[in-house]
Amino acid sequence: PRARCNILTSHLSAVRKHPLGISTAANSSSLGRSQWIALRPSNGRSRISRSSVCSSAPTMPDSPGPQVRLKQLGQNPKHALGQNFLLDEQVVEDILKAADIQPGDKILEIGPGTGVLTRGLLEAGANVIAIEKDTGLAAGLQEQYKDCPQLEVICADFMRWRKKEQLLPEESERYKVVANLPYNITSDALKRMLPMGDHISDLVLMVQFEAAERLISSSAGDGDYRPISVRVHFYSEPSFVRKVDKELYFPPPAVDGAIVGFKLREIKDTPQVDKTFFFRLVGAAFTSKRKMVRNNLKSCGFEASEVGAALKKMGISETARPNELTWQQYIELMGHLQGMSKQEEPI
Length: 347
Description:
Blueprint: E1 15-17, E2 23-25, H1 28-33, H2 50-54, H3 66-72, E3 85-86, H4 89-98, E4 106-110, H5 116-123, E5 127-132, H6 135-144, E6 151-155, E7 175-180, H7 186-193, E8 200-208, H8 209-216, H9 227-235, E9 236-244, E10 249-250, E11 257-264, H10 275-285, H11 293-296, H12 304-313, H13 327-344
Parallel strand pairs: 4-5, 4-7, 5-6, 7-8
Antiparallel strand pairs: 1-2, 3-10, 8-11, 9-11
Helix pairs in contact: 4-5, 12-13
C-alpha cells in the first residue's frame, strides 16, 4: 500500500523535578552536568516493560538498523531534509520513559524516518500517527507495518500543516508528541505546537543541545534567555532529560543533541492576555539585546519614557536589558503599558 500523501500542514525557577524523578534545572551550567541522567520513575508507576506489552500487541516486523533499512529502500540520508537517524536503543528507551508512554496512549510522531522510535512506541502499546515528509521513507514505513493497526503513516510536511483538526480531532484524551526534529525547524515547530495544549499534553523532542539550553532557560540575566524561552515558559513546563552524543546518529550531525520534554498547559491555564500582542512586545524587546528595553519598544508604539515609568513602577531599573526580565515580568510590563495607554485615550 502507498503512504497517504495528502499535505497537512516556555516558569521554572532554579531547579525542579521532572515527573520521572529527573532533576532538571533552568540554567545552562546545570545542563552541562546533566549529560547522562539515570531515568527513574518517582510517581509510583512501574517502568514500562516493552516485552510484556508486546505480548498483547501485534507481532512487530523485523526492524533493521537505519543504515540497513536505507539500503533496502535504495535511499541515502537527505541533508536538505535534515535527516540524521537515531542509532542507540538506550536513547529510544529514555524517550519512551520521558514521555511516560502507556498502553493505549495516542502518539503523534513527527519524522519517524526508518522507524526506530516508531517500533518502540508500538511495542509499548501506543497508537501512533506518524508524519513523514520523505515520500520514500513514508512508503517504506507503511509497507513495513502494513499489518499493524496501531500505526497510521501520513506522508506530509508537518510545517505546512494548517488545520490541527485534520490530525488531532476534538477528543477528551490529549495526544503526546515525540519527534526527532531537524535542528533547523525546532523553533518554528515549537511555535506551532506550544499553543496546542488543548490537544497535546506532552512534547518530547530531540533537539540540538545548544537549543535545549535556550529553551529551558528561565533565568533573567542568562545569556541563553531569549524570546523562544519566554514562549516556552508561557505555554509549558519544560525539562531537560539528557544529552545525546552526535555519534549516536547516522550520519553524525555537526553538534550534539538533547532530549527535552514540555508539559503543555491547557489554554485555560495559560495567562489570559492578548497573546498576539504579548509575543510581539517580547520580540520587539529583544530586537537588540544590548539596548535597554525602554528603547526597543518604540515599534510597539510606546515612548521610552512610558516604558521607563512602567519598569520603575515594577521595581525594575529603567535601564534594564531584555534578558533581565522574567517572562512573568513581561506580562506585568505589558499590563502597565496598556493601562497607561487607556488613561491617555480621549473621552
